[in-house]
Amino acid sequence: QAKASGRNCYVVFNQQMSADLAARIQLETELRQALLLQQFSLSLQPQVNLNSGKLCGFEALIRWQHPQRGIVAPDEFIPVLEQTQLIVDVGYWVFDRSCRYCAELIAAGLNDVTIAVNISADQFLHTKLPDRFGQILQRYGLSGHHFELEITESTLINNFSETLGMMYRLKAQGFRLAIDDFGTGYSSLNYLKQMPVDVIKIDKSFVVNMLDNPQDYQIVASTIAMVQKLGLQVVAEGVESLAVVKLLQQHQCDFAQGYYFSMPLAETQLLAFVQQVLQQHWPAALLPPATQ
Ligand code: C2E
Ligand code: MG
Ligand code: MG
Ligand code: MG
């Protein structure tokens, strides 16, 4: 590499770079073991139907309990899992665990619960995905209708025809499909029009500032309007205040998710949360009186 770059160019490989590289190799090694050592867990973040004011489901979010560093954020390790293809196996683990939660939630009384699961590009294009997901569903006695598979705009754009084919296979199994982080990628509306997508998730970067930033507000409002004109449903993520909830309701946004309603819940918190929901103490108490 250094040689190929020619005599007038220097490839600077300094101490900092070798330290970074060593840290990266260390991270990869630890991630290869994390699945075997059962260091991953899934947290579930509640999603609320803004029309009825009721819990409608959860998004499954992976967590890594590192033996020395404690909980490591997914933004730090998902990209590494993606670059090393480890994401494919971890993704099957995530779906399996999501099914287990789903069966537990149904058994606890949440019959119509939906669980949203994040799917990286390489996972989505894994030819065996529909078969593997089908087997996992069967193991838990579930149907695809309980799940919403979230992909990002970059997955669509980079492999349009393969993505489209996979979407139809998954739709045939009953899965709902969502576009995550909408507005941050390059999705052309022309692609969107051709795809069997059910749900658009407006990226939290627009939602968190929509009260203070008029541009973010316009982006959120017009995205909601457009998505609904296309006959799809819309979720706002990153909802942190009641004022934002009210604004989203004014614009007839279908669903919301964010710290205002709940942090992602660890397994140990989940059943207590479900009890609260079933006793109707959540989220009705948090919604403005006009909507109760
Ligand atoms: P995402 O799918 O867009 O998930 C939403 C992120 O926003 C989550 O971060 C969530 O904890 C955070 N969040 C929730 N409510 C609020 C809020 O009110 N305000 C703000 N500022 N943030 C909020 P998290 O859990 O750190 O996950 C980050 C990303 O990692 C996810 O973004 C997703 O792209 C990826 N990820 C998480 N779990 C998985 C997984 O199982 N598989 C794959 N492929 N990716 C995953
Ligand atoms: Mg997501
Ligand atoms: Mg998102
Ligand atoms: Mg994201």
UniProtKB/TrEMBL annotation:
Where's the EAL domain? 24-278
Organism domain of life? Bacteria
Protein's name according to its UniProt entry: EAL domain-containing protein
Which stretch of the full-length chain is present here?
522 to 813 of 814
